[in-house]
């Protein structure tokens, strides 16, 4: 073990693993933001080695376990079970091995993120473990009672007895709650109940004394694994969110076909209590999209790539401080902006674990190779231009493809890049490249980074498309290269009766490769999505130093310190 790792391990004799990790994350973030990625990686690696040492000591001193919690080496302790300690060892071992492989290529930033992700998972385990004592019922006459009136699990009960108790509880909850199909947008969520309605029901039936009491009790049920939110893990909320009752799934505990208890839960029908608790933790994360944003603060229109409601799947955004439209158009990043770009890609790939990474400017196509090197395991589709090969393959050589862009001349320097990345010649006469720089209420506004009035700009965009189709009657397809053009795609489709592809169809194409078919797919292998996008304000995922590096922040003289 490296000397620095041994020092960290020694330090953990008096601190809990969670405390040490939080401290390392805090110190490492400062190093990372100061550009000292190697030092950040070394600190995280040392902390991980120290954590491995500590968990090994836990295993050696398992006899110190007190009521299901394993004592640590010092005064502080994390309430981990043996299984959790083993899981922590697995996480840290894999993280250190993977990080060392990445670091051998001198990519210390990504190596640091590999370990950081393991740290985040461990902290989540710590948070759950620290709350475990809240779920431990107090002993009363040989039984343990939870403050939820309808939870009673005998102390030392067998797996079968626990399962039978939970069976009764699940069935009773099914009678109390209004469980059915609930629809949000175009998605129907079967066998769900609405949190806010459930609270009202529990109060009306006098099972709870108040709404606050109901929320508290429902959170107890969630901790027992009896109810769960359809997509995310969080505390039960008195809000119109969809939840499921464990009993409404295939895991429902029922009596045998004869209605007796003689054969109930025998053999394969016996569901281990631990399996019940872990059943809904094993889903894969719902596929999601990550979007790199220009350093450009504007209210996106519905249909814009920066508008969350443009998608039927989760989307996460990360602004790149200093990346202006002009810099993106030039295809050259400064050292500072390049580092910020790398950090943004890593944040989406590792912290948010998105499936596909795109960008809110078509000229980010210049940086697609750089992005692939940073997030080699993700699908990178930074520009609508990546749809060109499919479009070319789908039409005859004599057919024309109209490409609408913010500025027609801006694509000229990209011909070699398009040929290298897409395998097609951008100078092919098959392509009709037309700029929208002279379209009223659009061209000047986009060039200057001003807000575009969609209603005023739409007629000009449509008229330009119609004019080009009239001049080139062999036009069979239209591609909106600019990421601010999708709001006009439907109007252009209607006016020209031609198929239109844009930034949104680009994202949808690659995301569909990760999503289950709604008609005949294998349902249930990844988390469901409730259709509610994560709220995003430009720059909220940056630290104070990064925010102050943003052009939009400096221009508006905003102070985000402490936010």
TrEMBL record:
Annotated CDD domains: DEP (cd04371)
Keyword Lyase: yes
GO biological process: intracellular signal transduction
Lyase among keywords: yes
Key words, A-Z: Lyase
Recorded GO MF terms: lyase activity; racemase and epimerase activity, acting on amino acids and derivatives
Domain DEP: 165-247
PROSITE patterns, A to Z: DEP
Protein name, per record: Dimethlysulfonioproprionate lyase
